[in-house]
Amino acid sequence: MRDRDDPEVIGRRVQRLRAQRGLTQRQLAEPAYTPAYISTLEAGRARASEEALRHIAGRLGVAFEELTTGRPAHLATGLRLRLTEAQRVLADGRAEEAAAQYGVLRAEAEAHGLGCEQAAALLGLGDCALETGELTRAREYFEQAEEQLAGESLPMRVPAVRGRAVAHYLAGELRYAVYLLESALDELNRGGLHDPDALLLLYAGVIGPYMDMGAHARAAQAAEFALALAPRAGDPALIARMHRSVARTLLAEGRAAEADASLAKAAELYRQLSLRTELANCHWMRGYVCAQNGELDRAEAELRQAHTMLAQSRAALYRSQAAVELADVLHRRGKSEEAAELLRGVAGDFSSERGAVHAAAAHRLLGIIAEDAGDTEAAEEHYVRALSLLERAGAAGDLADLCRLLGDLLRRTGRVEAALDAYRTGLGHRTAPGTTTLGPAPAHPPL
């Protein structure tokens, strides 16, 4: 990002503007400077002070920024306003429309050397790609944003780091997602860079990967830090996202009422901000809470609402993930055929590199439904595919449960040794969740 053009470029610009206005060098210089000084400046042989450039800009009738950088007056402010509008469009669930706006803004910012605005457009493009499930493209945009901000402080780079981590997390690369988030947290806290918004963004973002890896103690601690940081944060959308993430740890600790209350706070904030996709995700999480608490009728209603809203916003990957959660509730309510049909409808949206944890959940549930119908061969095939996906993702908590299901199936079909191997694998993942895959916890914030 450039702050000021070099003296030669500025000199030519001063000469051109002076000639356009029919001014002599003496008229431009008086009363504070000499014609000789203006001549030297126009020839590019002197680096003018800010005071001198402000005097010349005033005499020429142009903005100081336009004189020193060549950018039209108020360009950066106008770009930032349009970036905010693109963010609102994305929040309303119109990811493709927002991506088109961000693309134009990125090109304009690059053409005028506005580095921070270019990075903001890249972050927006990354968020749009996450929304539509284009994880590789999202990661590339976030990496480019981080490169653009390389000279800025870590708190400025945190949104790009968090975006990369989310892209890896949704692709099933849990350990790497945690590594990115923990590294940033450690650097912020050890370096005394205690930016509340940056810390809250990272702590809220790491809860999901922790939970899927079975690192429940770290997830609970991250949730406590996030709750403590929330009053200091200035971004209501960030606070709402935090409440939604924290609900997962509250639920894991058996605090269902508190989890529901946390999600209600998030929903209210999202309604105020008209963040449609985030509101849909909130309904999704509330449905999950209700399902874990045994309120299946309410869970089905919440998850259907989430699925409908995500379908309308064309958030493909999130919609498919919500469909898996809804199918689980439908199965538990005795609607197995509808659940299986829903799962088959979204199967093509997942892969080992795209939504691996929910892909595994879909295969697990299809296996259970097949086993209930007496089709043990199909059930085993689904369980094995789910096991492969979870092992790649490192989702220790889900692996243990799946190994039990596979072991029970193998035992019932007479393959005792194979069943024992499955049980042993599951027990290995039940031992000290998270401790075998994670290093030391990051430094704590000064709360």
Automatic annotation (TrEMBL):
<dbReference type="Pfam" id="PF13432">
    <property type="entry name" value="TPR_16"/>
</dbReference>
<dbReference type="InterPro" id="IPR019734">
    <property type="entry name" value="TPR_rpt"/>
</dbReference>
<dbReference type="Pfam" id="PF13424">
    <property type="entry name" value="TPR_12"/>
</dbReference>
<dbReference type="InterPro" id="IPR001387">
    <property type="entry name" value="Cro/C1-type_HTH"/>
</dbReference>
<protein>
    <submittedName>
        <fullName>Helix-turn-helix domain-containing protein</fullName>
    </submittedName>
</protein>
<dbReference type="InterPro" id="IPR011990">
    <property type="entry name" value="TPR-like_helical_dom_sf"/>
</dbReference>
<dbReference type="InterPro" id="IPR010982">
    <property type="entry name" value="Lambda_DNA-bd_dom_sf"/>
</dbReference>
<dbReference type="Pfam" id="PF13560">
    <property type="entry name" value="HTH_31"/>
</dbReference>
<dbReference type="GO" id="GO:0003677">
    <property type="term" value="F:DNA binding"/>
</dbReference>
<feature type="domain" description="HTH cro/C1-type">
    <location>
        <begin position="14"/>
        <end position="67"/>
    </location>
</feature>
